Amino acid sequence: MLSRFSLAAIIGGLLNLLYVDNAPDHLRPYVIRQYATAQSTMLPREIFRFYITGASSNNAFTLLTANAPGNPSWNVLPHIHERHFENFYCFKGRYQLWAQAQDNTTQQTRVLTQGDFGAVVRNSTHTFQTIDPDTQLGGMLVPGGFEELFLTIGNASHPSTHSPYDPAFVNQTYSLTATESDIGQQQAFDVYSQLRFQPRRDAINGTAPAGTTWHTGPNQLAEFGRPYFIANGFGPKFLNNESSYQVIQPLVSPTQAGDLNFTMSTITVSTTPPNVTVPTWNLNNIQAFQVLEGMLSIQIASYDVANLTTGDSDPYFTKAMLMSQGYDGVDQQLISRGFPWDSAMFPNRWS
Ligand SMILES: [Cu+2]
């Protein structure tokens, strides 16, 4: 069965094997399959996989997914990270995310469905709860290395069927209480439990407080230091038409990332029109693509072409998540040579 691939294209070293089952223990180009072993780790009622680690990205970022059924309560105690910016993406199913900024302004919550995004900046109190039976969330944490927490507190789990999670989770109950020693141990990994935080339960149409815009109108990326949420397709958009059409939807731009020096965008790509040459990129920083729809073909240095696919071998429509180290990555370059665009779709005629 073909499935979604992740790819960390690290420009530089040349090694023989592009395809791996676990993220490499050092910086190098690689491709890893969705639901690969990926150091899969069991926590109560959820399995984490680590497609990019601190070791594989020279500490640029960690890319993980968590698969879980719906949970009767939060998946984790409310907590803060002082050093890590934690990005939440919904690959499928639904989960609810809560976030409150450091200055204790109004607590926000959203129910995330496929393609929705939440940016939990440093020092924001947050927690989440999975809702649907087949839910997958993505976490992109900057800087890298945050997986060490899960590898320490979880149990190694390598389902031989590569099942996203263990069906036995559905009947399991667990308690979210933490002992003093758990809390002390977690602080060493930049997790500071906020036991007095009460996640609000008054969301209507997937959002609270009242008056917030969620799947009903545009969402903006926030000023530096504030958590924010972008519903799928409702954020800012840019079109680049230098080769194929590419619609770039930034999720984290330099303003929000600040000193953490990274960006995240989705890029929707058309086919390449006749008589157009596919461009070659010369990039100085780490770029990682995770294909969401369609297929992205990438050739890295002198490796063979890698086809990152969700199963479609010759699609007319491809959408990928891009994570980029630095402020001159693929998304920022496409935006700088493109222009603001109102639609999530590329034009229906070649220009
Ligand atoms: Cu967190």
Automatic annotation (TrEMBL):
Gene3D superfamilies xrefs: Jelly Rolls (2.60.120.10)
Leader peptide range in chain numbering: 1-22
Assigned keywords, A-Z: Dioxygenase, Oxidoreductase, Signal
Molecular function as annotated in GO: dioxygenase activity
Protein name: Quercetin 2,3-dioxygenase anaerobically complexed with the substrate kaempferol
Species of provenance: Aspergillus sclerotiicarbonarius (strain CBS 121057 / IBT 28362)
Phylogenetic classification of the source organism: Eukaryota, Fungi, Dikarya, Ascomycota, Pezizomycotina
